Amino acid sequence: MAKAKDTPANAPVIVLGLGRFGSAVARSLVQLGHDVLAVDERPEIVQRYASDFTHVVAADTTDTEALRQIGAEQFGVAVVGIGTDIEASVLTVLGLLDLGVTEVWAKAISGKHAAILERVGATHVIRPESQMGKRVAHLVTGTMTDFIEFDDGFAIARTRAPECTVDRTLTDSDVRQKYGVTVVGLKTRGEDFTYAKADTFVTTGDELIVSGPTPKVEAYCALS
User: Fold this and answer.
1) pTM for the full predicted model
2) Percent helix / strand / coil, the chain, rounded to 5
3) CA angle 195-197-201, nearest 5°?
């Protein structure tokens, strides 16, 4: 899978498929200051969002010529929010790539769907249900208050400071050497988060931002 590039500030984005995922992405992009061309083949959906986004059009996104007619090739970044119709999702991604769109983000509803999208050249594949499900599972355990996992097996978590870290500096607890994770931030109750340093002193009730390989982050947070 190709590495995604940063989307320039205020760069226009085309969003194809206005289900819950696509419409949420489009709305957030507008709030961030991007011009958005929102596309869906269903006229009633286009009508619903007519006043929400910069431009909203009805088009068959599986038809490369239809994509050309709405100017899809003018966008450097595209988000394909089509999930339930795998064929339509793949054909839309292929059409965008054929038109020269360099950044194509696509939603997948299963591992097989994700594998197909990666194989045909989608820049980044998102599995929102799976990713959110794992995040919620970690939060439900009570050991973390936030958790984000990246594609390459790297994670960042917010957790209560484990006993092995309390009443000593990070140098003294030697977290990186013993547990294979890095404490990058600390929050004491009633204060803002601060960057963690070697001489940062951890007290009972402090919260830590921890990063590292996913299994090691999970194991460390389980100590809290």
Assistant:
1) 0.67
2) 35, 25, 40
3) 100
